[in-house]
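A reminder from the course coordinator: this example appears on the midterm review sheet, so study it carefully.

Given structure:
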């Protein structure tokens, strides 16, 4: 367990890294605490970037998590603007690109993920959306477009749908290009993807499924999107929302197990004195149907990891089972999910209707509830959390009806 003689070095000054620093102090840790981040900014929140910031309702300052008073109260040494390039596991030394090194007694890896890129001819002028630099660049481009200009959004997943919604709110004309037959099919499964597929057109946003893009070129004035079926589309801007990849390159020669993120155990430990949390952690999760190895890119999971690890390191209490949660604001609706079901799980509508666009659905596997998904039914969703806190049969869930 940590004592005041310890020095905890946290790499990655995002949500998980910052929340962990706060939680560690809350747990009474009085030792040295260093937070290393490659971005030049104090920790900020990402969900507003694709919602309030892109739509023009918020400034970037409103996304800041670590305000100066909080930084001071947390007594953390910030090392910003230079990425970690190497970790020596034996000595707990983190080397930075600027040539300096920080040695601690415990290292917490919280380097998150980065936007996946696709090598199109115009890739320099195509915008992903993961961080403040991305949104700043994208906003500069959007401000040069005239009202109603067409912007292609490549990828109809959560980020793509939120970006399209924000672009429409700015008076632009987004066109969502989705390679799969339905957006979100690989995450939520075919039934729910079908139920949600009406949201974009009802919000007057064009959605083109089965859009297999072969290239996007830029002629200095506009973009041409080329499709595998030989069709093309001329647009004024392109935003990329095609998923993310864990930031683990800096750990390649560390000897830690890297496989779809940093592999950690039930206590979020990758090796003695080395832990990983948030989007980058490939962790063991006690799901309602048994232990699963997962990496989950949800805001709430990053928060939960941060507080669980702080408690574990200061008190030795093993992390309790968590109920993963995410939300997404898209096409004028709120989608919320509890649990982490597989797209192949069974699904049934238990409240509301697809037509009214207010409903609750249960996911299950072998008759056990694995997830609850709600469209514009926030209260019903939260009331259903008990179904995932311990294994619950579908029969029991249908009898209890906590969503009603
Ligand atoms: P991050 O917040 O990504 O922080 C990691 C930090 O580490 C970054 O600053 C990164 O630059 C830095 N870093 C990387 N490599 C290095 C290195 N070598 N050295 C030093 N620093 C490094 N989740 C939801 O549940 N609901 C939502 O509606 C939602 N909306 C989102 C919208 C957007 C636009 C984005 C990008 C994400 C959204 N998320 C949402 C996901 C949520 O923001 C993430 O799950 C959360 O930020 C994960 O926190 P993290 O600390 O693990 O990673």
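Designed residues:
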């Amino acid at each position: 367990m940590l004592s005041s003689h310890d020095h905890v070095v946290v790499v990655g000054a995002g949500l998980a890294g910052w929340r962990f620093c706060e939680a560690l102090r809350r747990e009474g840790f009085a030792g040295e605490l260093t937070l290393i981040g490659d971005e030049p900014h104090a920790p900020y929140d990402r969900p507003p970037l694709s919602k309030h910031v892109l739509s023009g309702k918020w400034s970037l300052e409103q996304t800041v998590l670590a305000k100066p008073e909080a930084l001071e109260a947390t007594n953390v040494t910030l090392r910003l603007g230079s990425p970690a390039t190497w970790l020596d596991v034996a000595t707990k030394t983190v080397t930075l690109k600027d040539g300096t090194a920080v040695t601690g007694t415990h290292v917490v890896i919280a380097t998150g993920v980065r936007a996946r890129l696709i090598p199109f001819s115009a890739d320099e002028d195509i915008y992903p959306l993961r961080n403040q630099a991305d949104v700043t660049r994208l906003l500069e481009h959007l401000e040069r477009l005239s009202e109603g200009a067409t912007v292609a959004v490549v990828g109809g997943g959560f980020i793509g749908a939120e970006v399209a919604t924000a672009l429409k709110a700015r008076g632009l004309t987004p066109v969502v290009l989705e390679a799969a037959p339905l957006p979100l099919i690989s995450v939520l499964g075919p039934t729910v993807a079908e139920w949600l597929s009406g949201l974009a057109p009802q919000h007057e946003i064009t959605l083109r499924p089965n859009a297999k893009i072969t290239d996007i070129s830029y002629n200095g004035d506009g973009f041409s999107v080329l499709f595998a079926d030989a069709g093309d589309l001329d647009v004024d801007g392109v935003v990329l929302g095609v998923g993310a990849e864990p930031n683990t390159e800096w750990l390649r020669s560390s000897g830690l197990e890297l496989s779809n993120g940093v592999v950690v155990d039930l206590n979020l430990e990758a090796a003695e004195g080395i832990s990983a949390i948030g989007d980058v952690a490939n962790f063991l999760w006690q799901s309602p149907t048994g232990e699963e190895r997962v990496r989950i890119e949800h805001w709430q999971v990053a928060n939960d990891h941060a507080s669980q690890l702080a408690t574990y390191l200061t008190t030795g209490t093993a992390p309790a089972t968590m109920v993963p949660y995410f939300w997404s604001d898209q096409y004028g609706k709120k989608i919320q999910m509890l649990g982490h079901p597989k797209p192949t799980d069974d699904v049934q509508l238990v409240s509301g209707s697809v037509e009214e666009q207010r409903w609750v659905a249960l996911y299950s596997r072998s008759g056990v509830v694995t997830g609850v998904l709600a469209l514009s039914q926030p209260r019903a969703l939260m009331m259903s959390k008990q179904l995932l806190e311990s294994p619950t049969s579908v029969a029991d869930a249908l009898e209890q009806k906590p969503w009603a």
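Residues 117-240 form a domain with the FAD/NAD(P)-binding domain fold (CATH 3.50.50.60). The chain is about 25% helix and 30% strand.
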